[in-house]
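Following up on my earlier thread - several people asked me to post the actual chain instead of describing it. Fair enough. Here it is, all 284 residues.
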Amino acid sequence: MDAAQSLLRQRIRIRYAKGEAIKFISHHDEFRLWERALRRADLPLLYKQGFNPQPHIQFAAALGVGITGVNELLDIVLSPPVPLDEAAARLRAKLPPAVTLHTFEEVPLNAPPLQTLVIGADYTILLYAAPDEIPESLLAERIADFLARTTIWRERERKGKRYTYNLRPLVFELRYLGYDPTLEEHRIFLRVQARSGATGRPDEVVDALGFDDFARTLRRDRLYFADNEDDVAVMAQYPVISQEQIAAPRGVRGESLRRPAPGVEIGPREGQRSINERAVDEFI
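Reply from S.P.:
Thanks for posting it. Predicted structure:
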């Protein structure tokens, strides 16, 4: 890109929250939500060239069905540039109530893609159940069992092909935070690796614990990035897990969200379809 073209383009980084009201939409639908909001705000969103032009909208990390986000990031490219305050005000007026715009800032056009910088993520798992439905002792027992294991084989599908991987090394921290009687929810903290080809999925963790049949929210509280010193310092205490390290040997099959984990008897599953099966995006 020459200097003249650069002057006609503006890359903007948006920090926002995805709320409860739209947690069941897919990543594809969220992409369209942002495209439509930007168009309704009459912002000059730049489109890629080609037979099927796509807008320059880049998410840091996709949020699956049933997952909310507190501090999500996405980049857009406008051409020609628009004053930041004006662009933010116009966009904020067109976003649905379930999307909260936190910050709106310009970044260099040649900055690395957000997806290549993500290295980890923190989640809060919220299980909506009374203590007599899910005793705290049972939660503690399941978490301790999860952490004590070295292999937790899970089975996923990507591009029409099934594959098995080891979830356990991707989970760095998992601990029970307590029960809120007012909201009737159990809270569990989860920290995972989030790198290309080796990302820990919170829905897989919930299913491996045996609680996927209970109403819940998976909330992503924080993403960690390789270009942020504080983020790198936090993640430096954990090993970097490669895709090769979690790949299953030939012949090994893992548990899927489509069937219960061994020994789990909580909640009827026959004839049910997990909300995670409706997710169209893959994180691994």
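The longest helix spans residues 27-40. That should answer part of your original question.
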